[in-house]
Design brief:
The structure is a single chain. This protein is mostly beta strands and about 375 residues long. The protein folds into 2 domains: about 140 residues, Sandwich (Immunoglobulin-like), CATH 2.60.40; about 220 residues, Glucose Permease (Domain IIA) (Distorted Sandwich), CATH 2.70.70. It contains 2 helices and 27 strands. The longest helix has 7 residues. The chain is globular.
């Protein structure tokens, strides 16, 4: 079950100086840019830093990124806090706009850009650096066809010293699976969109919430009927006291698991019927794929935490009834940067494959664990009270 949506407190476009590593290979002709610096957030028992490294090759020949080492700024002589190389590095890299699949994602063709999706995890929150530096190691193809080693050092990436916004659940209790939730490989994490002249990741921390029954299944009977999905028609509620920033209604619903959509998918219809709340301090909560005609609020209206906003549906770019929820830095479905957030409290029942659990059900592997001030990871099965 997937949604392909791809949000100013967080945005601080950072252009990073590249310098030659002392005593090492000559400088690589690559621009390195990190559009949105990371802010710490608790996820799956760890504190994580989530951000993207954009690399543009400013030469006419290929260059291959072999290794990324990430250090705490000023930690000279200390071991890297994270290393990306080989398969881990290849899995972290994409080539936006490439006409065909790239055989080796680490290779950046002449004049082209690649994006490395980085996810740094720290067991102890006190060890999270206040700034980061990166060492990048490349192999470049010379004019004579021979390979030579190149390198870059990227310094002074600030780690934002902010506390993620803490919210209540966007639904009134029950058991839910966090489809496409936070991880470095989830579909939401890689949903880069170019709008207003910027490459943005509004869904950086987005979650597709799918409701489960007491047997941990997602639907009963024929899945092609929206009404057979346990989440269909569930009330979605305000996660905090807020003001309604925008509302979009009137998008018809899809047939679940169909290959086509009820309407052409455009920037206007991609979220289906949506509500966006302004939480203050540059944070906006977006609810997508609601039932048409079910929205109970209007722009400019003040709402209270727990107030009903509408009913969960299957509109827009949606495969089946679910609630797409995200927090961003702008009143926009995709034209924004995704911000980290945490829930005040939830019970973690375990982790399951979203596509399998919906049809076959599931047995929790262990006793539930109470989590506080965390965001659930991808495919976490949680109970909200």
């Amino acid at each position: 079950m997937q949604t392909r949506l791809t949000g100013r407190a967080y945005r601080a476009v950072v252009f990073l100086a590249a310098v030659t590593l002392s005593g090492q290979a000559p400088e690589a002709p690559v621009e390195a840019r990190i559009p949105a610096p990371p802010a710490p957030v608790r996820c799956n028992g760890e504190t994580v830093l989530v951000y993207e490294l954009h690399l543009t090759n400013f030469r006419p020949r290929d260059i291959t990124l072999n290794r990324i080492e990430v250090f705490g700024q000023g930690s000279n002589g200390a071991a890297p806090v994270s290393i990306y190389q080989d398969r881990k590095l290849a899995d972290a890299m994409v080539h936006p706009g490439a006409a065909a699949a790239v055989a080796d994602p680490r290779k950046i063709a002449g004049g082209m850009r690649a994006v490395a999706y980085l996810w740094l995890a720290f067991r102890d929150a006190s060890t999270v650096p206040r700034a980061l530096r990166h060492k990048l190691y490349f192999t470049a193809v010379g004019a004579d066809g021979k390979n030579d080693d190149r390198s870059l050092e990227i310094s002074n990436l600030p780690v934002l010293q902010t506390t993620p916004v803490a919210i209540a659940p966007p639904v009134k209790g029950g058991v839910w699976i966090a489809g496409n939730g936070p991880s470095n490989g989830s579909e939401h994490r890689r949903a880069l969109a170019v709008l207003g002249g910027q490459a943005l990741v509004a869904q950086r921390f987005a979650i597709d919430w799918l409701k489960l029954d007491e047997g941990y299944k997602g639907f009963r009977g024929a899945p092609k009927d929206n009404r057979n999905w346990y989440g269909y028609g569930v009330e979605v509620v305000a996660v905090a006291d807020a003001m309604v920033a925008s509302v979009h209604d009137g998008v018809p619903e899809n047939t679940p698991l169909a290959e086509s959509r009820a309407v052409p998918i455009t920037e206007e219809t991609i979220g289906g019927n949506t509500v966006i709340l302004s939480l203050g301090s540059g944070h906006f909560a977006m609810y997508a794929h609601l039932q048409p005609g079910s929205l109970r609020v209007k722009p400019g209206e003040r709402v209270r935490r727990g107030q009903v906003l509408g009913l969960l549906g299957n509109s827009g770019n949606s495969d089946a009834p679910h609630l797409h929820f995200q927090i961003t830095d702008r009143n926009s479905v995709r034209g924004a940067e995704g911000l980290p957030f945490v829930f005040d409290s939830f019970e973690l029942l375990g982790t399951a494959d979203a596509n399998e659990i919906l049809e076959k059900g599931w047995t929790p592997p262990a006793k539930p664990v109470r989590r506080q001030r965390e965001i659930p990871a991808e495919n976490a099965v949680v109970r909200f009270e």
